[in-house]
From TrEMBL:
Molecular function terms, GO-annotated: NADH dehydrogenase (ubiquinone) activity
Name listed for the protein in its UniProt record: Monovalent cation/H+ antiporter subunit D family protein
Domain NADH:quinone oxidoreductase/Mrp antiporter transmembrane: start-end pairs: 133-427
Taxonomic source organism: Candidatus Methylophosphatis roskildensis
Compartment(s) where it occurs, according to its Swiss-Prot or TrEMBL record: Cell membrane; Membrane
Lineage: Bacteria, Pseudomonadati, Pseudomonadota, Betaproteobacteria, Nitrosomonadales
Length: 495
């Protein structure tokens, strides 16, 4: 047993990886679903075990093929990526059992196994990006997750899903190209691809221009992947037209993993002293974050489709994460990292609940949702609670994030930024209120609901995340505790 535990970092990636081709070989919907659920739950168990082990013993270094780093490929787990591993696997463990009925309603039966296979590949990519200690392997896993994501989006019911997938493919390919050019420049300067070794060798680099070029390419490449405003154009269509479970999974995990990569490069590889003291990184990131927080929220207010409205909300919420990074202090980084979890579970809950509405109503446009609060009370109430978390109402997970952002802004002396954070939250009130008004204050539309609430297997797992958005508003020992430890790790490595 102890030998098996030693290989947990490899199993975290290998299990979902081997399940994907197995699903394609068997081509049975029920087998595909059961295997996906089993792999997702085992991945969650492994992630929790790694998180606990890191807390007890410190950084875990796992050499692939017994080749020691930096010559061999290393899987490296510390406080930051252990935290992200738990988020990704937790969302997957909730979405996988939810998916059976949702996929059966949205896809032809002969395509169902394919979506589960792509889901496992996407999970492989996201976990691999998070756990690897090699910058080129980040690119490999980034492509695994991206290629599978393009397929999952293209499997959406409407023809616009193909356009959305193609849009994402083009922008994602550009982002990946920029990223690989950046790491190519770093390799030319240092002769290594190992993240820890790269950080050490960059200290001795005297020529700053290639380093600045690498920094610029990597920032733009990852910015495209995480939908940093104004590089977010792919996201609204991708989230709107993808199958419901795909939207829920991607919104809760994919952009969060990209943020993790940005954090890793900024604070571990390049070093905060170079980027935030010697360069205008903080000012540029702050300006883009404020623009994203306000602009995306305003656009969300005027959407006529519930799914699209919350897609634009995701762009705004990502801006809160990058805002914390731009402040580059402990409270700001804690806010950014804790919002990876808080926004992940909140937005995952929202899109899972919207999937139930789509199952019963067929569409999620506002004109067809009038009075839905009477027909689907649990679903509607769950959406309201999750919406309150997006706003940042006390007692919800979203409040914790905004509290730390305010503390970070005050610590920097940016009182004007406190006003912007509060103002953008008020805009969130406006678009959440649009759903409340339609659901509870409008006459019911007889076409809107066929048979009441979504099946228990869908509604129950959606409510797991709704409860999570409340739980982490009160008990912050894991969410804030883990985020604060990760923030201290990043700042401790600043050069």
């Amino acid at each position: 047993m102890s030998g098996l535990l030693d290989h947990l970092p490899a199993l975290q990636v290998v299990l979902p990886l081997i399940s994907a081709p197995l699903i394609v070989l068997v081509r049975r919907q029920r087998f595909a679903w059961l295997l996906t659920v089993a792999v997702s739950w085992i991945s969650l168990a492994i992630a929790i075990a790694l998180f606990v082990k890191v807390g007890q013993t410190g950084v875990i270094s796992y050499a692939i093929g017994s080749w020691p780093p930096p010559w061999g490929i290393e899987y490296r787990v510390d406080a930051l990526n252990a935290y992200v591993l738990v988020l990704v696997s937790l969302v997957a463990a909730v979405v996988a059992p939810y998916a059976r009925i949702s996929i059966a309603a949205e896809l032809p039966r002969e395509q169902e196994y394919l979506l589960f296979a792509m889901f496992c590949l996407c999970l492989t990519g996201l976990l691999g990006i998070t756990i690897t200690g090699d910058v080129f392997n980040v690119f490999v896993f980034l492509e695994i997750s991206s290629l599978s994501t393009y397929v999952m989006i293209a499997l959406g019911q409407r023809r616009k899903a193909l356009v959305a997938a193609y849009q994402y493919l083009v922008m994602g390919t550009i982002g990946a190209t920029f990223y690989v050019i950046g790491i190519g420049l770093l390799y030319l300067m240092t002769g290594t691809l190992n993240i820890a070794d790269l950080a050490e060798r960059l200290r001795d680099v005297k020529e700053i221009r290639p380093l600045l070029a690498a920094y610029a390419f990597i920032t733009v490449g990852i910015g495209l992947k995480l939908a940093l405003f104004p590089l977010h154009q792919w996201l609204p269509n991708a989230y709107t037209f993808a199958p419901s479970m795909v939207t829920a999974f991607l919104s809760a995990t994919a952009t969060k993993v990209s943020v993790y990569v940005l954090l890793r490069f900024y604070f571990t590889v390049f070093g905060a002293s170079i980027l935030f003291e010697g360069l205008p990184t903080a000012d540029v990131l702050l300006a883009l974050s404020v623009a994203g927080m306000v602009t995306a929220s305003l656009v969300a207010v005027f959407q006529d489709d519930l799914k699209r409205m919350f897609a634009y909300s995701s762009v705004s919420q990502i801006a809160y994460i990058t805002l914390g990074i731009s402040l580059a202090n402990e409270a700001g980084l804690t806010a950014s990292i804790v919002h990876l979890l808080n926004h992940g579970i909140t937005k995952g809950a929202i899109f899972l609940l919207i999937g139930g509405i789509a199952l019963r109503c067929g569409v999620v446009s506002f004109d067809r949702l009038r009075g839905i609060g009477q027909r689907m009370p649990l679903t509607s109430f769950g959406l309201v609670i999750s919406g309150l978390s997006l706003i940042g109402i006390p007692g919800t997970a979203g409040f914790v994030t905004k509290w730390y952002l305010v503390v970070a802004a005050i610590d920097r002396g940016y009182w004007w930024l406190v006003a912007v954070i509060v103002g953008s939250s008020l805009i969130a009130v406006a678009y959440v209120w649009r759903f409340v008004e339609v659901a509870y204050l409008s006459e019911p539309d007889e076409r809107s609901v066929k048979r009441g609430e979504a099946p228990a297997s869908m509604l129950g797992f959606a409510w797991v995340l709704v409860i999570g958005s409340l739980y982490f508003g009160f008990d912050t020992s894991f969410s804030v505790g883990g985020a604060r430890e990760a923030a201290a790790l990043l700042l401790g490595g600043a050069r």
